[in-house]
Amino acid sequence: MTGSVPYYGGRFTPAQAYAAAHPPRPPAPPPAARPSAPPPAARASALSPRETLEALQDLLDTGVLTQEEFHELRARVER
Prior knowledge:
Layout (H helix, E strand, L loop, with lengths): L13 H8 L18 H6 L3 H14 L4 H12 L1
């Protein structure tokens, strides 16, 4: 037997022969991270305390945060 096609004792259909002769391509590598984008923690600390408090107030007003969560996060910002 020649080539890398395994012999299994029967006949290949044309589609099977093509698939055996043309293995699938390896998956593409994941895209590289953009070096210009700062990590999320660095972006969060780039906000001024006033901007952070305004954002927290907006989250409280829209119902995303409860009053207790708002006070806890506000205390963290004011430290």
